[in-house]
């Protein structure tokens, strides 16, 4: 298959997909795109705007996975009164723009993943684990490790070991490596979804 992996991050969802597919990953942050490229050198990695890439290229793929940024949809908004540095923003509607394009115009299979939102979704999703999914096939149930992740004793080393994604050697990345790992879908769940594609 030709697979498009949008907002790829460090590729947690992609880790167990193997090498038999032709995978294109799009990631906006050049430092994160470099980590992805080092982890999956056989993939075609594009450093750019995933939202724009989708609308210009969606017809070229058999399967599309999109994980648009989630902070403006997250239930964490309810912590506003506890975090003086948090600035409220309007929910990013590009999430729904992508869902509509894929639902109405895309001929292949697709998954759009996001957090469970603080508002009632504008388009009905499937829910699995701590995620919402919009897809044209049934998403399996997830037993993701949300509870373990929130344990203060859950170290970066343990998180890397559990996900099988080791990024401690990427010293040039100045951001929070814990956040990179938190944002990565559990690899087993990414494979379970890929394996659930209708054949």
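Q: What amino acid sequence fits the structure above?
A:
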């Amino acid at each position: 298959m030709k697979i498009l992996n949008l907002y790829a991050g460090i590729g947690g969802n992609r880790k167990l997909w193997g090498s038999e597919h032709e995978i294109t990953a799009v990631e906006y942050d050049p430092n994160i795109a470099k980590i992805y490229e080092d982890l999956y050198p056989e993939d075609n990695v594009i450093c750019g705007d995933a939202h724009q890439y989708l609308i210009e290229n969606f017809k070229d793929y058999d399967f599309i996975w999109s994980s648009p940024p989630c902070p403006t949809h997250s239930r964490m908004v309810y912590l506003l009164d506890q975090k003086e540095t948090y600035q409220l923003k309007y929910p990013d509607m590009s999430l729904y723009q992508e869902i509509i394009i894929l639902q109405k115009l895309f001929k292949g299979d697709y998954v759009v993943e996001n957090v469970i939102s603080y508002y009632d979704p504008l388009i009905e999703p499937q829910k699995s684990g701590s995620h919402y999914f919009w897809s044209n096939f049934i998403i399996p149930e997830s037993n993701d490790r949300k509870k373990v992740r929130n344990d203060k004793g859950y170290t970066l080393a343990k998180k890397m070991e559990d996900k099988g994604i080791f990024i401690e050697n990427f010293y040039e990345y100045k951001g929070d490596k814990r956040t990179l790992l938190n944002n990565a879908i559990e690899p087993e769940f990414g494979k379970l979804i890929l394996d659930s594609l209708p054949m």
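Q: And what stands out in the fold?
A: The radius of gyration is 16 Å.
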